[in-house]
Amino acid sequence: MRRISKRTAVVLGAAGTVLVAGVAYAAWTSTGSGTGSVASTTSVNSTIDPAGLGDALYPGSGTDFTVTINNDNDYPVVVNSISAGSSDVTLGGCAAGTVTSPAVSNPAGTILAHGTKTYTLHATMSATATNACKSQTFTLPLTAAISSNA
Q1: Do 106 and 43 contact (CB within 8 A), yes or no?
Q2: Are 73 and 43 in contact (CB under 8 A)?
Q3: CATH top-level class for 47-148?
Q4: Which one-letter DSSP state was computed for residue 98?
């Protein structure tokens, strides 16, 4: 067996290192490009349901009543306002607008996704309400302006 000199060993070692580095450098490299995508949800109109009637009204009186606003969206919302309400003509012939409730701006609170929140409103019966308004239940159409709580 032949013995390798130090010089030959150094030269062979250096050549091996260059060869390995050349193989590693020769490996192919690349980059990737393309797109990603996401989708937004759609909004669902909330609903308002009566929650409590309050005290019985008589001409010139007022009472607090409650409504529940339902958030059927997949995200939390805030109620920006609740419209004024005005009663329709009743079956007994009580005039439209006999019972009213004022608009409410910026009621407090967040309604969680698929949650509900109860709000207290105030209703007043006109001082000129007639006998046709006795023993009636008044419906006050209301609208809530709602936005995402972002």
Answers
A1: no
A2: yes
A3: mainly beta
A4: S
